[in-house]
């Protein structure tokens, strides 16, 4: 937990001026016990049947690694691996680091810093393109359904300056594009003239 790194940090930095030769025996034992405990915790094999996690959920191993990162233990391990005076712990640190990367695919780890993998990105792009095409097709179908139903109402307009019965302006009930063909007889039935009465 969070107390383990503190013990290791205290043992490593309690007397920073002292070299590893002047460190007390109990400090050396404490560091070794903490490193062995960490190695043993990470060495526990994963049991997917017992974890019963959903896809994309962090495994127990991943959660342990996250807890180590939050507590600062990974920084201490980097310090132990790189410090010239702490070479006696090199094999322990190497074993812990190899257990931290257990079960990881090297190609996935290399691609983690670059965002999603190329194959996943291509698959996501194809899926998004399919969804976009489907949405465009639905939009076109809706537009076609709307245009098939037409309102016959073209609007009502008052023609100023053209008088109707009773000194009122004419009210025109057709579209404005029909205004050129306006006459007072518009909309009236034409009387049929029998053939024998038609003018020659």
UniProtKB/TrEMBL annotation:
GO cellular component: replication fork protection complex
Chain segments carrying region Disordered: 1-20
Timeless N-terminal domain segment(s): 17-158
Major site of localization recorded for this protein: nucleus
Cellular localization per UniProt: Nucleus
Organism superkingdom: Eukaryota
Keywords noted in UniProt: Cell cycle, Nucleus
InterPro entries: Timeless, Timeless_N
GO BP, sorted A to Z: DNA repair; DNA replication checkpoint signaling; replication fork arrest
Single Gene Ontology MF annotation: DNA binding
PANTHER family recorded: PROTEIN TIMELESS HOMOLOG, TIMEOUT/TIMELESS-2
Protein name stated in the entry: TIM protein
Natural source organism: Syrrhaptes paradoxus (Pallas's sandgrouse)
